[in-house]
Amino acid sequence: MVPTVDRVTLPLTGFTVGITADRRRDELESLLARRGARVLSGPALRILPLAEDELLHEVTGTLVGDPPDVLVVNTGVGFRGWVEAADGWGLAESLLAALGGARILARGPKAAGAVRAAGLREEWSPESESSDEVLARLLDDGVDGLRVAVQLHGAPQRELCDALRGAGAEVVEAPVYRWVPPHDVAPLRRLTDAVLGGDVDALAFTSAPAVLSMLEHADERRPALLQAMRDDVVVACVGPVCARPLVSEDVPCVLPDRMRLGGLVRSLVDALPERAVRVEVRGHTLEVRGHAALLDGTPLEMGPGPLAVLRVLAAAGGRVVGRDALLAALPGGGNDAHAVETTVSRLRTALRDPALVRTVVKRGYRLDVEPG
């Protein structure tokens, strides 16, 4: 019997994670939600169906007519989709025959598995799953005068392809599952609004094109979006290639040990709870994280006003916070002096123990944190 897991024990309870994925979006949403996160989805791209990709059709015919000496397979799903699309065009048998005479390098185990499932065999696959290691192997072996086909992984691999061309190879790029703009950009813009409004704790990216698309659609808000990523939001990328556009903009990125969705989610499980503010108040552990507050591990029902006040009081760690500072922290600000008293009263009700928030006459409020 599988034990039930109470939501209060989930590591991402109280945090909001934005995702831009199109392919495997449901899987990523489910992985995050099962760990307690609230998920905001704003697809930054969509995948052009392979059967409709005229460029891939043209490249396939080119390789059938003039087979490559070397084939680089980057992804399992991409290679399988390529073969399926070729089958729809009546070219699968000819394509596999053309590729079967090539030296095949697979970037990782999934790519190697797809190669074998198609009846072919890879010559080599790096344990690191790194395109850089694949490139190093090819350059060490020498590619001068060779025809090298590269199955792309959804974005142009300029560094790899340019390096091969610089070493004398003729490179044929197979653009498998090309990304194109989403049919509806409204969800992506809403996600950007939420990031800029401070309502998102983390962004999870699964491809470099999605990163570039989000920045492009931010338009004039791009500098503010990048600054939010640097200062306020945990940015997690599935791998170094995905992170490269952000690293070039000095955005710190969290990377998983393995380039998998599960690893991406685990990296957020490790990173986000570390950003929570925790204080010990009258024998209780009070934690403020994202859009929620937890008392001894149990989420509290609390509106945005009381939560905003609590966030300021918790950050002060028991020091007195003046009414003006609390008024400024309220959503939308305000100039009503009674708004602070009303909000503090609602906060005390939500905390279930009014004594956790102390009134300091003529000065303000503080949490009842013991000295030291």
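The above is record 1. Record 2 follows with the same two-line structure.
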Amino acid sequence: MTYSQCLYPLDSSLLKAVAYSTDETLQLEFRTGPVYRYFRVPPTIFQKLMTATSKGAYFNRNIRNSFRYQRVA
């Protein structure tokens, strides 16, 4: 899995950092510590997450429970 970008810090009370790979894998680090990978996330979902006023609310509405995921840390 090759990430096109490094982890980017986020201004969010829920999410600490994000990375998105060329194979449509979204990696999210939560403020509470866990890191999850979400698979087959379209680029538009990632772009909208990055521009959302509330990244936590966007995550809860559009990513959580919508994509297959794996806890990695």
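The chain has one domain: 8-71.
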